[in-house]
Design brief:
- With 354 residues, this protein is α/β, with parallel strands linked by helices.
- The strands form 2 sheets. The chain has an 8-stranded mixed β-sheet, with helices on both faces. Strands 8-9 form a two-stranded antiparallel ribbon.
- The termini are close together.
- The protein has 14 helices and 10 strands.
Length: 354
């Protein structure tokens, strides 16, 4: 199973929407895919549930030894329970074969400070040695139990200990962005932060105490899959393929500049890149974005209500749109489908390299 971190500490970049759409597309391509909701806001879990009216959270664990969400899955390590981490029950999509959810829990954030302490002191306090590897172990054990090919990790927009841990125990990562000033700033911030995380991860993987823990910290260096840009307007000019409007094109250029001059140089120095020819062979060259997904407009509300991605909407049965409106949305749906299919195929090709 390949664990893929979907991460950007800047909010408002359609991270959860991208995770859900990409996972669905991977399942459509025959890959058993599990999304793991590690954002305590639980937005990804909400996307899976759709428009439901429930008084109680449907994924609370009835037994502490039969977890049904990510918080309860790691509870044995964080609360020193007298039993081992077990594979969590996962929720099978009723609308797409091969797609599964390891639900989130608001209470996961309660472990943030404890994990931060364990990151700093587990090399001297053996009582903390099982904590740094717990999240990875729970995800890996659940994935193996369910024959999962890809686990996509939806993370909160922060630079906290939970995200640091999830990121540095993943095989690869994708950075979702929006075409704006703050996404360019975020890339430069990540160029400074990720090398520090990589250095910490290397030390943790080589720590004898963490290697001998019940939940060993994995020896892995996450590799950059690519960056996606979402939520912008497109326009066709002179019968050419639709491209970002001039207003958004400016920010595309700023993002490319920050990616090339800051992020990629930083990742290369930290051994977080594959070989350049690997990206070329996967049709995912580093000077391009992994995916460019335009604004979803009113389709996103329909998609969220029926718990489907935009590209899976059937306009005739899922909506009341007709005429020119339906024709316009049909074009958009097909465009979104092509974008995510291209991105999913690139991800599959790149992860075959390691």
């Amino acid at each position: 199973m390949k664990q893929i971190a979907i991460f950007n500490h800047k909010g408002g970049v359609a991270k959860t929407t991208m995770t859900f759409h990409l996972a669905w597309m991977l399942a459509m391509l025959g890959k058993r895919t599990m999304v793991v909701d590690c954002d305590p806001q639980c937005n990804l879990t909400g996307v899976f549930l759709g428009d439901i009216d429930a008084e109680d959270y449907p994924f609370e664990s009835q037994s502490p030894q039969k977890p049904r969400n990510i918080r309860d899955a790691v509870r044995p390590a964080f609360e020193s329970r007298p039993y081992m981490i077990q594979a969590s029950e996962i929720f099978k999509s009723t609308k797409q074969d091969g797609l599964y959810l390891l639900p989130g829990h608001v209470g996961l954030s309660e472990y943030e400070s404890q994990l931060a302490v364990a990151h700093e002191l587990s090399n001297t306090l053996s009582a903390l040695q099982n904590i740094p590897g717990a999240l990875h172990h729970a995800i890996k054990k659940t994935g193996e139990h369910n024959d999962i090919d890809f686990a996509l990790i939806d993370m909160s927009p922060s630079l906290g200990a939970i995200n640091q841990n999830l990121f540095m125990t993943s095989h690869a990562f994708i950075i979702p962005m929006a075409p704006d000033l703050f996404s360019a700033m975020a890339l430069r911030s990540l160029a400074r932060t990720l090398p520090k995380w990589a250095e910490w991860g290397k030390k943790a993987a080589n720590n004898a105490i963490l290697r001998s823990a019940d939940y060993p910290f994995p020896d892995v260096i996450p590799k950059y899959i690519g960056s996606s840009v979402q939520n912008f307007r497109k326009r066709a000019r002179n019968n050419e393929e639709a491209k970002p409007t001039y207003a958004f094109q400016k920010w595309f250029e700023r993002l490319k500049e920050a990616k090339k001059n800051d992020l990629l140089l930083s990742l290369k120095n930290s051994n977080m890149l594959l070989r350049e020819e690997d990206y070329q062979e996967a049709n995912a060259p580093l000077d391009q974005f992994l995916m460019e997904i335009g604004a979803l407009d009113g389709l996103i509300a329909t998609a969220q209500e029926i718990a489907k991605p935009v590209f899976a909407i059937d306009l005739s049965t899922d909506t009341t749109y007709t005429g020119n409106v339906a024709d316009t949305y049909r074009v958009k749906i097909n465009d979104v489908r092509r974008g995510f299919e291209a991105g999913a195929r690139k991800l599959i090709a790149l992860t075959d390299k390691f």
